[in-house]
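Researcher: Sequence recovery benchmark, item below. Answer with residues only.
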């Protein structure tokens, strides 16, 4: 049975085929048209297929927004939490039920599987449908569906015969017949669909059962790039915790999104727009934008969108009242710095803008995380980087920071109920946490180079310890009235924007400060030797 049902207008058939080919080449079985037997009811087949697939992709266009079939199928899937919404035309008005649904654009996409837009789409699909089956290499691309039988010629108004209304592909440079995608699997199974009889009304989907949940993949993931020194620390227990538990829309780590199942692939390429990326099986997607001088920018990890419970419960040892109340936050996908910004990265900016370079305390520059930078310094850097790359860089919001730091966990640390000095940089000579063994006798007394300690399950290094990290948010004494969409919290509800939130804990601190929920405030013009920042980038 197919994994994915594509809901679209038949007038967009030629523009949808590259998407079908690309998804099939990734290993998914796609139901996108239908071939029905003479006398077989069309609406029953549609309803039966919708109930069986794990994910419905709605392709919105100037044609599909007017199709009652596309609207009915998509609304049914949205109500059951298994819709992925995309658009292939600009300037269209989505149905009102989809106004609050994230709908990324594939306008201009040519069918390339390594394009960032398609990789982000794969991530969204994987959250709902899980990983695809292993693709077969070196086989032809998905064939065009066969013409319908004579018994199925009464189509709805938006479903003309294939030959009647060829539409241009997503990119005008493409011919009407899309090029085959390499490494695609063999011909689709017997249930691969074709155009159908639709003389009846759209199916009544109200009685369809809820889809079965997709199991959350385990998070025992390797370090994100070959440069990582150590990834020996045990991963957190991926089993679903008791409420309040994080909900990642069926969380699937970014490592699986981009991997080609059964193959070990290391690929570095340059995409249109100056983006380079590192692609490796079971490892996170690392984006690197190109600066104006042709050099590469900081490494950014794609973080999956989803929902989680932000804050700490009253039962968490050594928590503070400013970490509550616990509240649910839902975020879209974004990218976050694989490491804290380094001296090498910041010094390039300082030289370009004629700014004073921060003191390194004689600990070294280069790959050491930049320290002694104020919030104003950090925001000046992200503005410069945005100008250099044409992308929107910024400081992470407080919600984005905690979501990425937790990486699907609900324990005090991303490592579990305890943390150790071989996993993070803190004062393990003088302090313990809840008698868990965090007091190891090790105290480094300074920062460690970026990327030298194990990454969390989503590929972020030193997200706990080493240095405190600035966020966008103004200081609030608790989470009453906090945003639920992951956005930065400004002056509302008593916010003080002369003070900003810092997260993560530093080399000088007690292990309790390394908890994912721990938060402090620092005035925007202060700069310390245990304070720096990490980047966020919009996708």
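Model:
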């Amino acid at each position: 049975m197919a994994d994915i049902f594509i809901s679209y207008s038949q007038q967009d058939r030629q523009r949808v085929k590259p998407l079908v080919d690309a998804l099939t080449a990734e290993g998914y079985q796609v139901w996108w048209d239908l071939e029905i037997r003479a006398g077989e009811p069309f609406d029953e087949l549609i309803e039966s297929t919708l109930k069986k697939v794990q994910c419905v992709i709605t392709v919105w266009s100037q044609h599909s927004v007017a199709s009652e079939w596309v609207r009915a199928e998509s609304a049914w899937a949205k109500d059951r939490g298994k819709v992925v919404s995309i658009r292939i035309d600009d300037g269209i008005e989505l149905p009102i039920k989809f106004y609050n649904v994230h709908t990324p654009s594939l306008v201009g996409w040519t069918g390339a599987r390594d394009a960032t837009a398609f990789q982000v789409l794969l991530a969204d699909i994987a959250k709902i449908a899980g990983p695809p089956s292993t693709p077969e290499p070196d086989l032809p691309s998905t064939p065009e569906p066969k013409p319908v039988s004579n018994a199925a010629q009464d189509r709805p108004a938006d479903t003309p015969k294939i030959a009647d209304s060829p539409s241009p592909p997503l990119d005008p440079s493409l011919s009407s017949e899309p090029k085959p995608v390499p490494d695609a699997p063999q011909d689709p199974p017997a249930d691969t669909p074709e155009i159908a009889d639709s003389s009846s009304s759209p199916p009544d989907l109200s009685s369809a059962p809820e889809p079965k949940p997709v199991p959350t993949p385990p998070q025992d993931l390797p370090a994100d790039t070959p440069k990582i020194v150590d990834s020996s620390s045990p991963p957190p227990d991926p089993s679903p915790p008791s409420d309040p538990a994080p909900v990642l829309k069926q969380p699937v780590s970014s490592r699986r999104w981009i991997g080609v199942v059964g193959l070990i692939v290391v690929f570095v390429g340059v995409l249109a727009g100056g983006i380079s990326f590192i692609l490796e099986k079971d490892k996170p997607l690392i984006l690197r934008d190109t600066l104006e001088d042709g050099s590469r920018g900081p490494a950014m990890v794609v973080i999956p969108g989803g929902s989680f419970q932000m804050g700490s419960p009253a039962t968490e040892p050594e928590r503070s009242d400013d970490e509550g109340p616990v509240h649910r936050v839902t975020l879209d996908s974004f990218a976050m710095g694989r490491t804290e910004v380094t001296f090498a990265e910041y010094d390039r900016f300082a030289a370009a803008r004629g700014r004073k370079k921060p003191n390194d305390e004689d600990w070294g520059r280069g790959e050491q995380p930049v320290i002694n930078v104020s919030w104003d310094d950090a925001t000046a850097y992200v503005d410069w980087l945005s100008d250099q790359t044409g992308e929107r860089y910024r400081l992470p919001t407080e919600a984005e920071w905690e979501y990425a730091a937790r990486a699907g966990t609900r324990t005090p640390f991303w490592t579990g109920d305890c943390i150790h000095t071989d996993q993070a940089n803190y004062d393990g000579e003088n302090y313990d946490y809840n008698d868990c063994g965090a007091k190891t006798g090790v105290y480094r007394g300074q920062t460690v180079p970026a990327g030298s300690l194990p990454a969390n399950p989503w590929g972020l290094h030193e997200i706990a310890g080493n240095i405190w990290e600035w966020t966008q948010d103004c200081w609030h004494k608790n989470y009453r009235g906090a945003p639920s969409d992951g956005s930065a919290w400004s002056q509302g509800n008593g916010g003080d924007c002369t003070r900003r939130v810092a997260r993560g804990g530093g080399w000088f601190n007690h292990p309790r400060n390394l908890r994912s929920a721990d938060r402090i405030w620092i005035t925007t013009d202060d700069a310390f030797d245990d304070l720096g920042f990490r980047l966020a980038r919009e996708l």
